[in-house]
Amino acid sequence: MSTLTSTQAWDILNRVPDPEIPVISVTELGIVRDVQAADNIVDVVVTPTYSGCPATEVIERSIREALTAAGATQVRVTTRLAPAWTTDWIEPAAQEKLRAYGIAPPVARGAGNAQPLTFMARVDCPRCGSADTERLSQFGATACKALYRCRSCREPFEYFKPL
Amino acid sequence: MSTITAANAAHLEYVLRIADTSLILGQRLSEWCGHGPVIEEDIALTNVALDLIGQARLLLTHVGRLEGKGRDEDRLAFLRTEPQYRNLTIVELPNVDFARTILRNFLVAAWQRELWQKLASSTDTELAAIAGKALKETRYHLQHAADWTVRLGDGTEESHARMQKALDYLWPYTAEFFSATAEDAAVEAAGVGPAWATLESTWEAVVRPVLEVATLAVPARMPFLSRGKQGQHTESMGHLLTEMQYLQRTYPGGTW
Lengths: 163, 256
Prior knowledge:
The complex is a heterodimer of chains A (163) and B (256).
Chain A: H1 6-13, E1 32-38, E2 41-46, H2 55-69, E3 74-79, H3 92-101, E4 103-104, E5 133-137, E6 145-150, E7 156-160
Parallel strand pairs in A: 2-3, 4-7
Antiparallel strand pairs in A: 1-2, 5-6, 6-7
Chain B: H1 6-30, H2 39-67, H3 73-78, H4 98-119, H5 125-153, H6 157-170, H7 184-189, H8 200-213, H9 235-244, H10 246-250
């Protein structure tokens, strides 16, 4: 069997889906920060999303399985906490995939990272595009999403919270 | 083998206080799972609990490394006795009702936000990394609790009365957020983190305007001072630990 290159290892991870939002991959989510392959030993650096995200351990296992299936003899996954993960790392193409899946993508946080106490961004409905939406709950089915409702098309939807 | 000096004993104690505060509040909030007043709040409170337990896992793992005695997050979380916990007393108090739960979340999240902001530049780089991450989560916890504090405080007669009662009950426990301890000087001098007394004015500047909009009257400070962060707990703590530690005590070393 041939030797895995770092580029090939990245490509493999591009196809490992996020367990909670399977339309995007772990690389599109921006949590894979570094991949180094040498002699079929692959080192992967992952930055977790939320401290208590239950998907973190599943993601680590999926990464191991995918790389092992591609010929890696050893996969070392290390966690890097700083700099902390931000939704700004979600790739633009992935933001569109989120929208098509029915999840409003996060508004850009920008460099300032400012977030006042009563922070309320304009969130457009991912289904009909209307800006006439309201927040039902700050926390949705997972820590990373809030629950919204569109006043135009009356559909509820999830919003990926900027972090 | 590393020798525990007075300076790193203080460091260890300092991180443990922060870790246990997240852990015990996370445990308390998880009691709401399946009992929230509406499904959105059931989900919100358990999501906050999950963040807090996630923070506690990272912090307790770090405590275990600082201590150097081979204790991991699970041993620290589940196999200590009551006086060995160092959480702020306020987080161990029973939930009682949604008003008290929300108001406590508000008071604690405002304090945690000030603390994480300072710790993000700690000389302890692992602590700084955990704080930088926790800060982002705590902002949402604070926003959620502040929204509800205003809605309930400035709400119906019943919701206002419950919030005022919650504030009268909880406020005295917030003195512990800022009370001086023997470890403060060493920790501050080493650049590990601020003496908590220095957080008081910024905390009040966040908390008081929200309570005012919520039409709640802030009680005067009293000499009462709780000491959970020094290992002196209320009766509630033993009951909480009995439930939290049940599995590890009954089936030692059990994993799943």
